[in-house]
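Practice problem: predict the structure.
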Amino acid sequence: VQLVESGGGLVQPGGSLRLSCVASGIIFSVENMGWFRQVPGKERELLAMMDIGGGTNYTDSAKGRFTASRDNAKNTAYLQMNSLKPEDSATYYCNADIRHYAYSLHSYTHWGRGTQVTVSS
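Answer:
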């Protein structure tokens, strides 16, 4: 299974970006999907976690400016980021809990390699 994030880049303060995360490979179902970010020297920070029904919980860092969504038919998660600030600069990661087969008793957590977001004028 691969998770691939895309959509990062350089944006000016106040701008917007939409990140995508596509899961591919042997997948029966994608359960929870989450968005995280990390800056060098700091722990990875949870931003949003979505369940398979689309219910979403946000942490304080993401509330109000970030919107997470998913398209289950495409095994894809999105993170819409608005009103970006320089302190939002980080590598953004997604993860997904995946059941690989219909008979699988458990799901396994997979991570993408991240996409860099830089907010600077």
